């Protein structure tokens, strides 16, 4: 089951990368002066290349807000769960929702000092969670 979840995740990342960045991603890139090479690395690695760089952290926050992942400074846990469920339905898989919700709640509790650090920490937690594969119902 874990392998299938990982395959779904990798497929989603590949499709995103192939379709190119969304308009809001390009706007966030411009707003925070993210060079093209760094933008591509963040896109592929799903993490800031330099977490000490406030522009990279705020770029990630900008993206999360634009996608609807963060609302009013908080992780929209329902949004994250619903997006995961939608992606899995497309490939006839079912999310183990209670297990996933517990993990997402852990990410929502992330904290941090400094501008955009909390959003960056939430994103790192989500990226780590997703890279481990989504929990699926057998």
Automatic annotation (TrEMBL):
CDD domains according to UniProt: PBP_GOBP
InterPro entries with a match to the protein in the record: PBP/GOBP (IPR006170), PBP_GOBP_sf (IPR036728)
Annotated organism of origin: Blattella germanica (German cockroach)
UniProt-recorded name of the protein: Chemosensory protein
MF (Gene Ontology): odorant binding
